[in-house]
Amino acid sequence: MEKIRPRTLSGFMELLPARQVQMERFMQVLRETYALYGFTPLDTPIIEAAEVLLAKGGGETEKQIYRFEKGDSDLALRFDLTVPLAKYVAMNYGTLSFPFRRFQIGKVYRGERAQRGRFREFYQADIDVIGDGALDVVNEAEIPAVIYRTFTALGLKKFVIHVNNRKILNGFYAMQGLTEKAGDVMRTVDKLEKIGPEKVREILVDDFAVAPAQADAVLAFIGIRGSNARVLEALEQYRGQNELFDKGLEELHTVTRYLGAFGVPEDHFSVDLTIARGLDYYTGTVYETILPDHPEIGSICSGGRYDNLAEYYTDRQLPGVGISIGVSRLFFILEEQGMLSDEGVTAPADVLVIPMTDRLDEAAAAATALRKAGVRTQLYAEKKKFKAKIGYADKLGIPYVIFLGEDEIAAGMVTCKDMAAGAQQTLPLDALIPLLKTGLAQKNAGTVICEK
Amino acid sequence: MEKIRPRTLSGFMELLPARQVQMERFMQVLRETYALYGFTPLDTPIIEAAEVLLAKGGGETEKQIYRFEKGDSDLALRFDLTVPLAKYVAMNYGTLSFPFRRFQIGKVYRGERAQRGRFREFYQADIDVIGDGALDVVNEAEIPAVIYRTFTALGLKKFVIHVNNRKILNGFYAMQGLTEKAGDVMRTVDKLEKIGPEKVREILVDDFAVAPAQADAVLAFIGIRGSNARVLEALEQYRGQNELFDKGLEELHTVTRYLGAFGVPEDHFSVDLTIARGLDYYTGTVYETILPDHPEIGSICSGGRYDNLAEYYTDRQLPGVGISIGVSRLFFILEEQGMLSDEGVTAPADVLVIPMTDRLDEAAAAATALRKAGVRTQLYAEKKKFKAKIGYADKLGIPYVIFLGEDEIAAGMVTCKDMAAGAQQTLPLDALIPLLKTGLAQKNAGTVICEK
């Protein structure tokens, strides 16, 4: 028979078993942390009517989308989790309670040009709080706490949540009479780190006809650095000139004020006036999360406050604040940087029961008892040489092997080998189980991420 | 602005939040149980090259498949989890250890005609054990244990795992010289319950030219009923006439022999000669799981032994045994039958912290402490009337509400209301936390499924 070459499409992540176990742990931390903050899990279809998904239309997204017909239906695969959320909230408005807090971890699809570390199918992990007509700024203050706890629970230590406020930016540009040029100016300013202030000034003046004095004002504003208190202090000089700016400054004060109460250490949080995010969507606090040792990675968790979640579907104003983690990309980077911890059991089982007799009744009963006690157990049933059986446990990294021979069966005991320590002991299964549980708890005590 | 009507495609399941929480619990039980039996989690792409997915080709499946082009690529959405597994194992053959035990819970796609309880996007939850060249029959004996434990952990009590062996069927039909007609005969016999033995006999003789004596033999064989011991006993009369039959009978003996050791009670297991499953795939033990009070539902968990997992991709023989649960359909049926337990917290949070002062520092700190202790907590930050705040907790079913007024703050206490009991107490947060944990453990002690 002619064979088809088995292959996985490029840009589609498919992990080997031990890596997948790490990925599952990663996702479990996200699920548990998001749940701790009172977000409810949601699951929406991957396929939606193209008209619904593309309600906003235009832009880079539409080119990348997977869109196809089935029967008479014009369908598309979701390209983010925000549009499906907007649909869901607009659809179920009458049933939901607001503020509506949901998390969703799911695959999204973008037919980008495949390149290393860029995926066409990838997991996003989003949280959003949606208000009905209004949403208090305290919700914006709470978001850094979720980010902090999530990455801390994953085992990351060195990360900084950079925060800005779009009202401050828009207010400042309005003060300068640069509202219409704000987009161009911000895109230019975004290159500051790369090309330096001189070049930024040149582009502003030459390409966008910004007056030299204004360009200097922009550079002075964007150059405000230092501790959070210092940046807030420096922003005071602009107060009283623009209502929007003043409102944004108040919001930024509120966000920073509650950080401590929400458990975010000062050194993990940075007021950063260079953060802008999506120009036409966010309207208040915006977030980016940076690894200071790996600035080249860019933000690993971003989001912000928006005023109209579902304007394409409903007249109701549904303001919200949310963040998103690009899970697949982050996981790929962590792997590449060697930052995935190799502690923790990644084998399919904690115990391999190896029968040393032809009849398997006692071995099956032992496996059953172990499982009843919550120990992940495999019974090795293949007729292989002893060396092959123990080699199987070794190759998979199964931490404990139990042997059951005639002697053990007669004595009502089992022999257990700790594969890492090499130690072996014979004892009743009941006595072994608590020892296994202690040993496993130790082996699995670490976090998903380890920093070098 | 012209609005797009927000909608979800028909045949696509999208649950409201409280239901989704039940679904998450359902899936968590599957994940945990599968893991207990030494299966490793796998995640493969939803999109594959159409050539790879359709390697087997033909049949009903190909018509139902979602297939489309993107750029130069001919793509398709997976319609089950078995074909991706075959691809994965063939692709990674050199890296994997065999027996390879994996579980996968994921969405699959079939563009069926939409009808009530039939989904175009639905979750399957599969386990498979794959051998390299050979796979011991004991693996087939262990599968009923996984099924038993899974449904028991979900809270189902009345279910029976029906088991047959394809070698027994094929051997029996060979004895009768009916090998070539076996497909037609089995499809006819499958209607036994519906149309009765007289009618089956008539169809066999009239439509398929089965000799009357053979038709009687088929009906006698298929009519073997009773306890497992009795059915096995009755099968002895056919022994010695066909090698395949004898091998199948031995396998069936092995499977039933180890049931007890694997922890499956006799009354949850039934040797059932009417079970056939997919005619061209399974080669040994086959399984169906039936709810005796709801025979109309059909099998809720099926599978069996096969000899060639990946024949379209590789010459290597990869025998296996596996089962699949159609999660979305089962969940839908359980909901419809009122069998989803309404015990257990389905709210996004266990505690709603309601600040009674303008400043929120203490309320935020209380929420932070609760979360640190592992209690799912929401801080209610909206400026609403007290009645609206408490109504929010009530509507969502949040079990506990904590009030923080000036008095509590001054005294270093919190006031906590148990929403179900109506009782209210004022105490230090540290003293409250263990009480909350005990209360929540009680509320969440139940299972996902409850039988009426």
Overview of this protein structure:
Two copies of one chain form a homodimer. By secondary structure, chain A is α+β, with helices and mostly antiparallel strands. Chain A has three domains: 8-150 and 295-340, 2-Layer Sandwich (BirA Bifunctional Protein, domain 2), CATH 3.30.930; 160-290, 2-Layer Sandwich (BirA Bifunctional Protein, domain 2), CATH 3.30.930.10; 351-443, Rossmann fold (3-Layer(aba) Sandwich), CATH 3.40.50. The first copy, chain A, is 40% helix and 19% strand. Chain A contains 16 helices and 16 strands. The first copy, chain A, has an eight-stranded mixed β-sheet with strand order 1-5-6-11-10-9-7-8. Chain A has a five-stranded mixed β-sheet with strand order 13-12-14-15-16, sandwiched between helices. A three-stranded antiparallel β-sheet of chain A has the order 2-4-3. In chain A, strand 3 (67-70) and strand 4 form a beta hairpin. In chain A, helix 7 packs antiparallel against helix 8. Chain A is elongated, with a radius of gyration of 28 Å. At the A-B interface, helix 1, strand 1, strand 2, strand 3 and helix 4 of A face helix 1, strand 1, strand 2, strand 3 and helix 4 of B.
Task: Provide the descriptors you would attach to this structure in a database record.
homodimer, 452 residues, alpha+beta, BirA Bifunctional Protein, domain 2, Rossmann fold, 3 domains, 8-stranded mixed β-sheet, 5-stranded mixed β-sheet, 16 helices, 16 strands, 19% strand
